[in-house]
Protein backbone atom coordinates (compact mmCIF):
# COMPACT_ATOMS: atom_id res chain seq x y z
CA UNK A 1 0.00 0.00 0.00
CA UNK A 2 1.42 3.37 -0.96
CA UNK A 3 2.20 5.87 1.82
CA UNK A 4 0.51 8.71 -0.08
CA UNK A 5 -2.72 8.29 -2.02
CA UNK A 6 -2.72 11.01 -4.65
CA UNK A 7 -6.26 10.04 -5.64
CA UNK A 8 -7.59 11.75 -2.52
CA UNK A 9 -7.54 15.41 -1.46
CA UNK A 10 -5.93 14.40 1.86
CA UNK A 11 -3.21 12.56 -0.02
CA UNK A 12 -2.58 15.56 -2.24
CA UNK A 13 -2.27 17.81 0.82
CA UNK A 14 0.14 15.31 2.32
CA UNK A 15 2.29 15.40 -0.82
CA UNK A 16 2.34 19.21 -0.70
CA UNK A 17 3.17 19.22 3.01
CA UNK A 18 6.06 16.79 2.46
CA UNK A 19 7.51 18.89 -0.37
CA UNK A 20 7.27 21.99 1.84
CA UNK A 21 8.92 20.12 4.68
CA UNK A 22 11.84 19.09 2.49
CA UNK A 23 12.20 22.67 1.22
CA UNK A 24 12.19 24.12 4.74
CA UNK A 25 14.45 21.40 6.13
CA UNK A 26 17.01 22.33 3.51
CA UNK A 27 16.58 26.07 4.15
CA UNK A 28 17.66 25.33 7.71
CA UNK A 29 20.53 23.11 6.61
CA UNK A 30 21.69 25.83 4.20
CA UNK A 31 21.66 28.51 6.91
CA UNK A 32 23.03 26.48 9.77
CA UNK A 33 25.79 25.05 7.58
CA UNK A 34 26.73 28.61 6.53
CA UNK A 35 26.96 29.47 10.25
CA UNK A 36 29.30 26.50 10.81
CA UNK A 37 26.77 24.91 13.13
CA UNK A 38 26.38 21.88 10.89
CA UNK A 39 29.73 20.18 10.26
CA UNK A 40 30.90 18.28 7.19
CA UNK A 41 29.62 18.77 3.70
CA UNK A 42 26.05 19.17 2.43
CA UNK A 43 24.33 18.86 -0.95
CA UNK A 44 20.82 20.27 -1.19
CA UNK A 45 18.02 18.97 -3.40
CA UNK A 46 15.86 22.11 -3.54
CA UNK A 47 14.02 22.13 -6.87
CA UNK A 48 13.90 18.31 -6.95
CA UNK A 49 11.27 17.75 -4.23
CA UNK A 50 8.62 16.38 -6.59
CA UNK A 51 10.88 13.52 -7.68
CA UNK A 52 11.41 12.42 -4.08
CA UNK A 53 7.77 12.77 -3.03
CA UNK A 54 6.21 11.42 -6.23
CA UNK A 55 8.48 8.37 -6.10
CA UNK A 56 8.43 7.57 -2.40
CA UNK A 57 4.71 8.35 -2.11
CA UNK A 58 4.02 5.24 -4.19
CA UNK A 59 6.11 3.03 -1.90
CA UNK A 60 5.04 1.14 1.18
CA UNK A 61 7.01 1.49 4.43
CA UNK A 62 8.36 -2.03 3.75
CA UNK A 63 9.76 -1.04 0.37
CA UNK A 64 13.31 0.23 0.12
CA UNK A 65 15.16 3.14 -1.39
CA UNK A 66 18.86 3.62 -1.92
CA UNK A 67 20.06 7.17 -2.26
CA UNK A 68 22.95 9.37 -3.25
CA UNK A 69 24.98 12.22 -1.72
CA UNK A 70 21.83 14.38 -2.25
CA UNK A 71 19.64 12.40 0.12
CA UNK A 72 17.60 14.73 2.35
CA UNK A 73 14.54 14.78 0.10
CA UNK A 74 14.55 11.02 -0.46
CA UNK A 75 14.92 10.42 3.28
CA UNK A 76 12.07 12.70 4.36
CA UNK A 77 9.83 11.47 1.54
CA UNK A 78 10.53 7.89 2.65
CA UNK A 79 9.16 8.79 6.07
CA UNK A 80 12.24 9.67 8.11
CA UNK A 81 11.62 12.27 10.83
CA UNK A 82 13.21 15.58 9.87
CA UNK A 83 13.98 16.13 13.57
CA UNK A 84 16.11 12.98 13.84
CA UNK A 85 17.64 13.60 10.41
CA UNK A 86 18.66 17.11 11.45
CA UNK A 87 20.20 15.78 14.66
CA UNK A 88 22.20 13.40 12.46
CA UNK A 89 23.46 16.30 10.36
CA UNK A 90 24.46 18.11 13.55
CA UNK A 91 26.49 15.01 14.49
CA UNK A 92 24.39 14.37 17.59
CA UNK A 93 23.88 11.09 19.43
CA UNK A 94 20.12 11.39 18.82
CA UNK A 95 20.53 11.24 15.02
CA UNK A 96 19.59 8.25 12.88
CA UNK A 97 23.16 6.94 12.88
CA UNK A 98 23.96 8.33 16.32
CA UNK A 99 25.75 11.22 14.66
CA UNK A 100 28.26 8.99 12.86
CA UNK A 101 26.77 9.22 9.39
CA UNK A 102 25.83 12.82 8.70
CA UNK A 103 24.23 14.05 5.51
CA UNK A 104 25.93 11.67 3.10
CA UNK A 105 25.63 8.39 5.02
CA UNK A 106 22.24 8.52 6.67
CA UNK A 107 20.38 5.22 6.80
CA UNK A 108 17.30 3.94 8.65
CA UNK A 109 16.51 0.36 7.81
CA UNK A 110 13.20 0.20 9.72
CA UNK A 111 11.84 2.93 7.47
CA UNK A 112 13.20 1.36 4.29
CA UNK A 113 15.99 3.87 3.82
CA UNK A 114 18.96 1.68 2.92
CA UNK A 115 21.35 4.57 2.90
CA UNK A 116 22.75 7.67 1.27
CA UNK A 117 25.81 6.82 -0.82
CA UNK A 118 28.52 9.42 -1.35
CA UNK A 119 30.23 7.20 -3.90
CA UNK A 120 28.63 8.24 -7.17
CA UNK A 121 26.78 5.29 -8.69
CA UNK A 122 26.91 3.11 -5.55
CA UNK A 123 23.18 3.47 -4.92
CA UNK A 124 22.46 1.39 -8.02
CA UNK A 125 24.23 -1.90 -7.19
CA UNK A 126 22.84 -1.58 -3.67
CA UNK A 127 19.33 -1.43 -5.11
CA UNK A 128 20.09 -4.45 -7.27
CA UNK A 129 21.36 -6.21 -4.15
CA UNK A 130 18.15 -5.49 -2.27
CA UNK A 131 16.27 -6.80 -5.31
CA UNK A 132 18.31 -10.04 -5.29
CA UNK A 133 17.56 -10.44 -1.59
CA UNK A 134 13.83 -10.02 -2.23
CA UNK A 135 13.94 -12.59 -5.02
CA UNK A 136 16.01 -15.16 -3.12
CA UNK A 137 13.96 -14.82 0.06
CA UNK A 138 10.68 -14.51 -1.77
CA UNK A 139 9.93 -11.17 -0.11
CA UNK A 140 7.37 -8.69 -1.44
CA UNK A 141 9.37 -5.50 -1.22
CA UNK A 142 10.26 -3.30 -4.17
CA UNK A 143 13.47 -1.26 -4.15
CA UNK A 144 13.97 2.10 -5.77
CA UNK A 145 17.53 2.99 -6.67
CA UNK A 146 17.86 6.76 -6.98
CA UNK A 147 20.83 7.99 -8.97
CA UNK A 148 21.94 11.19 -10.69
CA UNK A 149 22.56 11.86 -14.38
CA UNK A 150 26.30 11.97 -13.66
CA UNK A 151 26.26 8.50 -12.13
CA UNK A 152 25.09 7.04 -15.42
CA UNK A 153 28.64 7.59 -16.71
CA UNK A 154 29.92 5.14 -14.06
CA UNK A 155 30.55 1.48 -14.90
CA UNK A 156 28.99 -0.09 -11.81
CA UNK A 157 25.64 1.47 -12.70
CA UNK A 158 25.51 -0.47 -15.97
CA UNK A 159 26.66 -3.73 -14.43
CA UNK A 160 23.97 -3.46 -11.78
CA UNK A 161 21.16 -2.52 -14.18
CA UNK A 162 22.16 -5.34 -16.53
CA UNK A 163 22.01 -7.88 -13.71
CA UNK A 164 18.68 -6.56 -12.44
CA UNK A 165 17.24 -6.73 -15.96
CA UNK A 166 18.56 -10.21 -16.65
CA UNK A 167 17.24 -11.58 -13.38
CA UNK A 168 13.98 -9.57 -13.59
CA UNK A 169 14.45 -8.16 -10.11
CA UNK A 170 11.77 -6.08 -8.32
CA UNK A 171 13.62 -2.80 -8.69
CA UNK A 172 12.92 0.63 -10.18
CA UNK A 173 15.86 2.79 -11.18
CA UNK A 174 15.04 6.48 -10.88
CA UNK A 175 17.54 8.74 -12.58
CA UNK A 176 17.26 12.31 -11.34
CA UNK A 177 18.52 14.21 -14.33
CA UNK A 178 19.16 17.66 -12.89
CA UNK A 179 21.36 18.43 -15.91
CA UNK A 180 24.58 18.82 -13.97
CA UNK A 181 27.19 16.57 -12.51
CA UNK A 182 29.15 18.80 -10.16
CA UNK A 183 30.15 21.62 -12.56
CA UNK A 184 29.80 19.53 -15.69
CA UNK A 185 26.88 20.27 -17.99
CA UNK A 186 24.90 17.26 -19.18
CA UNK A 187 26.03 17.21 -22.84
CA UNK A 188 29.71 17.43 -21.90
CA UNK A 189 29.28 14.08 -20.23
CA UNK A 190 26.78 12.13 -22.31
CA UNK A 191 26.41 11.38 -26.00
CA UNK A 192 22.63 10.92 -25.82
CA UNK A 193 19.96 13.45 -25.00
CA UNK A 194 17.71 11.20 -22.95
CA UNK A 195 19.44 8.79 -20.60
CA UNK A 196 16.39 6.60 -20.67
CA UNK A 197 17.35 5.57 -24.23
CA UNK A 198 19.84 3.20 -22.65
CA UNK A 199 16.93 1.14 -21.31
CA UNK A 200 16.71 -0.53 -24.71
CA UNK A 201 20.22 -1.90 -24.27
CA UNK A 202 19.02 -3.87 -21.25
CA UNK A 203 15.68 -4.82 -22.75
CA UNK A 204 13.91 -2.72 -20.12
CA UNK A 205 11.03 -0.27 -20.36
CA UNK A 206 12.09 3.33 -19.89
CA UNK A 207 9.96 6.33 -19.01
CA UNK A 208 10.73 10.02 -19.15
CA UNK A 209 8.83 12.15 -16.70
CA UNK A 210 8.61 15.83 -15.82
CA UNK A 211 10.36 15.84 -12.46
CA UNK A 212 8.78 19.18 -11.53
CA UNK A 213 5.30 17.64 -11.59
CA UNK A 214 4.64 15.47 -8.56
CA UNK A 215 1.48 13.94 -10.05
CA UNK A 216 3.30 12.89 -13.21
CA UNK A 217 6.15 11.34 -11.21
CA UNK A 218 3.67 9.52 -8.99
CA UNK A 219 1.68 8.09 -11.91
CA UNK A 220 4.80 6.98 -13.77
CA UNK A 221 6.07 5.36 -10.62
CA UNK A 222 2.79 3.55 -10.03
CA UNK A 223 3.22 1.71 -13.34
CA UNK A 224 6.89 0.98 -12.69
CA UNK A 225 6.06 -0.25 -9.19
CA UNK A 226 3.34 -2.52 -10.52
CA UNK A 227 5.77 -4.10 -12.98
CA UNK A 228 8.42 -4.63 -10.32
CA UNK A 229 5.98 -6.02 -7.74
CA UNK A 230 4.35 -8.42 -10.20
CA UNK A 231 7.61 -10.01 -11.33
CA UNK A 232 7.92 -8.20 -14.65
CA UNK A 233 11.27 -6.71 -13.66
CA UNK A 234 12.82 -3.27 -13.49
CA UNK A 235 11.90 -0.02 -15.18
CA UNK A 236 14.22 2.91 -15.74
CA UNK A 237 12.54 6.23 -14.98
CA UNK A 238 14.31 9.42 -15.99
CA UNK A 239 12.96 12.46 -14.17
CA UNK A 240 13.98 15.72 -15.82
CA UNK A 241 14.62 18.13 -13.00
CA UNK A 242 16.84 20.94 -11.75
CA UNK A 243 18.73 21.80 -8.60
CA UNK A 244 18.44 25.36 -7.37
CA UNK A 245 21.49 25.39 -5.13
CA UNK A 246 25.07 24.73 -6.13
CA UNK A 247 26.44 21.21 -6.30
CA UNK A 248 27.45 21.58 -2.64
CA UNK A 249 26.89 24.45 -0.21
CA UNK A 250 29.69 26.89 -0.91
CA UNK A 251 29.85 26.10 -4.64
CA UNK A 252 30.39 29.38 -6.51
CA UNK A 253 28.68 27.94 -9.61
CA UNK A 254 30.86 29.39 -12.38
CA UNK A 255 29.32 26.87 -14.77
CA UNK A 256 25.81 28.34 -14.98
CA UNK A 257 23.95 31.66 -15.11
CA UNK A 258 21.82 33.00 -12.34
CA UNK A 259 19.18 33.67 -14.99
CA UNK A 260 18.86 29.96 -15.70
CA UNK A 261 18.30 29.22 -12.02
CA UNK A 262 15.71 31.99 -11.71
CA UNK A 263 13.89 30.74 -14.79
CA UNK A 264 13.49 27.29 -13.26
CA UNK A 265 12.45 28.75 -9.92
CA UNK A 266 9.89 31.05 -11.50
CA UNK A 267 8.51 28.77 -14.17
CA UNK A 268 9.06 25.18 -13.03
CA UNK A 269 8.91 25.15 -9.27
CA UNK A 270 7.41 21.81 -8.14
CA UNK A 271 5.75 23.27 -5.05
CA UNK A 272 4.27 26.24 -6.87
CA UNK A 273 3.10 23.95 -9.72
CA UNK A 274 1.30 21.66 -7.34
CA UNK A 275 -0.13 24.52 -5.30
CA UNK A 276 -1.70 25.87 -8.50
CA UNK A 277 -3.07 22.41 -9.38
CA UNK A 278 -4.72 22.10 -5.99
CA UNK A 279 -6.08 25.65 -6.14
CA UNK A 280 -7.55 24.91 -9.60
CA UNK A 281 -9.24 21.82 -8.16
CA UNK A 282 -10.74 24.02 -5.44
CA UNK A 283 -8.81 22.11 -2.79
CA UNK A 284 -6.44 24.76 -1.52
CA UNK A 285 -6.94 28.40 -0.57
CA UNK A 286 -4.11 30.88 -0.05
CA UNK A 287 -4.82 30.76 3.69
CA UNK A 288 -4.54 26.98 3.73
CA UNK A 289 -1.24 27.13 1.85
CA UNK A 290 0.13 29.75 4.24
CA UNK A 291 -0.94 27.69 7.20
CA UNK A 292 0.86 24.62 5.77
CA UNK A 293 3.96 26.78 5.32
CA UNK A 294 3.68 28.09 8.88
CA UNK A 295 3.31 24.54 10.18
CA UNK A 296 6.58 23.37 8.58
CA UNK A 297 8.41 26.54 9.67
CA UNK A 298 7.34 25.95 13.29
CA UNK A 299 8.27 22.32 13.06
CA UNK A 300 11.74 23.12 11.75
CA UNK A 301 12.23 25.93 14.33
CA UNK A 302 11.67 23.34 17.03
CA UNK A 303 13.86 20.79 15.23
CA UNK A 304 16.81 23.21 15.11
CA UNK A 305 16.46 24.04 18.80
CA UNK A 306 16.33 20.38 19.67
CA UNK A 307 19.30 19.41 17.50
CA UNK A 308 21.35 22.24 19.04
CA UNK A 309 20.54 21.08 22.56
CA UNK A 310 21.14 17.39 21.94
CA UNK A 311 24.41 15.81 23.06
CA UNK A 312 27.34 14.89 20.89
CA UNK A 313 28.28 11.22 21.11
CA UNK A 314 30.47 10.22 24.02
CA UNK A 315 34.11 10.43 22.83
CA UNK A 316 34.67 7.02 24.37
CA UNK A 317 32.17 5.60 21.88
CA UNK A 318 33.81 7.20 18.81
CA UNK A 319 35.04 3.90 17.46
CA UNK A 320 32.18 1.67 18.58
CA UNK A 321 30.96 -0.46 15.70
CA UNK A 322 34.16 0.19 13.75
CA UNK A 323 36.86 -2.10 15.14
CA UNK A 324 36.38 -5.42 16.83
CA UNK A 325 39.64 -5.20 18.79
CA UNK A 326 41.04 -1.98 20.30
CA UNK A 327 43.63 -0.34 18.04
CA UNK A 328 46.39 1.98 19.41
CA UNK A 329 45.56 4.74 16.89
CA UNK A 330 41.98 4.70 18.12
CA UNK A 331 43.08 5.09 21.72
CA UNK A 332 45.17 8.12 20.71
CA UNK A 333 42.24 9.64 18.84
CA UNK A 334 39.93 9.03 21.75
CA UNK A 335 42.31 10.83 24.11
CA UNK A 336 42.56 13.76 21.72
CA UNK A 337 38.79 13.87 21.37
CA UNK A 338 38.33 13.84 25.13
CA UNK A 339 40.86 16.69 25.45
CA UNK A 340 38.92 18.65 22.82
CA UNK A 341 35.66 18.27 24.71
CA UNK A 342 34.18 15.65 22.41
CA UNK A 343 34.28 17.69 19.21
CA UNK A 344 37.00 16.96 16.63
CA UNK A 345 39.31 19.98 16.57
CA UNK A 346 37.76 21.41 19.75
CA UNK A 347 34.76 23.63 20.35
CA UNK A 348 35.91 26.99 19.02
C1 LIG B 1 33.02 7.46 -7.65
C2 LIG B 1 32.95 8.93 -7.41
N1 LIG B 1 33.50 9.76 -8.32
C3 LIG B 1 33.44 11.11 -8.13
C4 LIG B 1 32.85 11.61 -7.00
C5 LIG B 1 32.74 13.13 -6.80
N2 LIG B 1 31.37 13.54 -7.03
C6 LIG B 1 30.50 13.73 -6.03
S1 LIG B 1 28.97 14.15 -6.57
C7 LIG B 1 29.47 14.10 -8.18
C8 LIG B 1 28.51 14.44 -9.29
C9 LIG B 1 27.33 13.57 -9.31
O1 LIG B 1 26.43 14.04 -10.29
P1 LIG B 1 25.02 13.40 -10.44
O2 LIG B 1 25.12 11.93 -10.41
O3 LIG B 1 24.37 14.01 -11.62
O4 LIG B 1 24.27 13.83 -9.09
P2 LIG B 1 23.86 15.30 -8.61
O5 LIG B 1 25.01 15.84 -7.84
O6 LIG B 1 23.55 16.10 -9.80
O7 LIG B 1 22.67 15.07 -7.74
C10 LIG B 1 30.81 13.74 -8.28
C11 LIG B 1 31.55 13.62 -9.56
C12 LIG B 1 32.32 10.72 -6.07
N3 LIG B 1 31.69 11.12 -4.95
N4 LIG B 1 32.34 9.38 -6.31
MG1 LIG C 1 23.09 15.59 -11.73
Pick out its properties:
binds thiamine diphosphate, two-stranded antiparallel ribbon, Rossmann fold, five-stranded parallel sheet, 348 residues, single chain, 45% helix, alpha/beta, binds magnesium ion
Largest sheet: 5 strands, parallel
What is the correct CATH architecture of the largest domain? 3-Layer(aba) Sandwich
Major beta sheet, strand line-up: 1-2-3-7-6
Report Rg.
20 Å
- The CATH superfamily of the largest domain is identified as Thiamin diphosphate (ThDP)-binding fold, Pyr/PP domains
CATH topology of the largest domain: Rossmann fold
The total number of structural domains is 2
Structural class, from helix and strand content? Answer: alpha/beta
Can you put this structure into words, describing what you see?
The protein has helices at 9-34, 49-56, 72-77, 82-89, 123-137, 155-166, 186-189, 199-202, 214-229, 258-267, 270-280, 286-309, 328-339, and strands at residues 64-66, 143-148, 171-177, 180-181, 184-185, 206-210, 235-240. The protein contains 13 helices and 7 strands. The protein starts with 8 loop residues before the first helix and ends in a 9-residue tail after the last helix. It is an alpha/beta fold and 348 residues long. The mean pLDDT is 95. The strands form 2 sheets. Strands 1-2-3-7-6 form a 5-stranded parallel β-sheet, with helices on both faces. A two-stranded antiparallel ribbon has the order 4-5. The chain has 2 domains: 9-313, Rossmann fold; 315-348, no CATH class. The chain binds thiamine diphosphate and magnesium ion. Magnesium ion is lined by residues 148-150, 178, 180-181. Residues 68-70, 118-120, 148-151, 178, 180-182, 247 line the site of thiamine diphosphate.
